[in-house]
Amino acid sequence: MIFRQLFEPESSTYTYLFGCPDTGEAVLLDPVMETVERDLSVLQELGLRLSYTLETHIHADHVTSACRLRSLTGCKVAYPEMDGLPCADVGVSEVNALSIGGITFHPLFTPGHTESHHSYLLSLPGTSRVFTGDALLIDGCGRTDFQGGDAAALYDSIHEKIFKLPGDTLVFPAHDYQHRHVSTVAQERERNPRLGAGRTLDEFVEIMANLNLPYPKRIDIAVPANRLCGDCPDEEALMAIEPEGPSRQG
């Protein structure tokens, strides 16, 4: 598998590129509008053609480039099926995986950050990787106070879907604000200050209730645009908003 972890600094978002060397197909997970040219350049350098964009959830901190990449490359747009977005070409779910060549993305329903959030598990020879979106971050997790967020649901998602994976499963989050790139399930089980080290559900709910995070600056534009797969009707207004600070996801 061809794999790249790409970073967008304003929202501290990781976009992940996956390529099948046998078929030349590629998937971009959680692409960002501001990095369209970079992503197209990387695809060209690697000799790959984009088959799908794939999202973990409807983002509040940035606008996806899914719609624009579809118009430029002819790729298909994949979202969690339960979002029910008319703009999506493909819906994924725990019973409807997404595959390119020899690579299969196994969706894991992990609500809590948002009500329809999905993570994606890739089982490869010698290693497994889970792409946790905004649900599980390195030494943290996504906030749970908007878009159908629910702290108890997130606690259950992490403990029942992610922490039960083998300990050496690599964890790749959608964001990191300290320039960290990867963790493991064992590391997060053992030392995640919110969810690991034996934290109880009641303790986690109390932690999340007292974060006192500021309202996301881009949410009023980003969420409606992302419900249109990134077809933002007011892109100039979006670009004029100041970048998110590191407290956005908590």
From TrEMBL:
A UniProt-annotated Pfam family: Lactamase_B
Any GO molecular function: hydrolase activity
One GO BP: glutathione metabolic process
InterPro entries noted in UniProt: Metallo-B-lactamas, Mito_Persulfide_Diox, POD-like_MBL-fold, RibonucZ/Hydroxyglut_hydro
Keyword Acetylation carried by entry: yes
Gene3D superfamilies per the UniProt record, alphabetical: Ribonuclease Z/Hydroxyacylglutathione hydrolase-like
Listed cofactors: Fe(2+)
Keyword Acetylation: yes
Similarity comment: Belongs to the metallo-beta-lactamase superfamily. Glyoxalase II family.
Protein name: MBL fold metallo-hydrolase
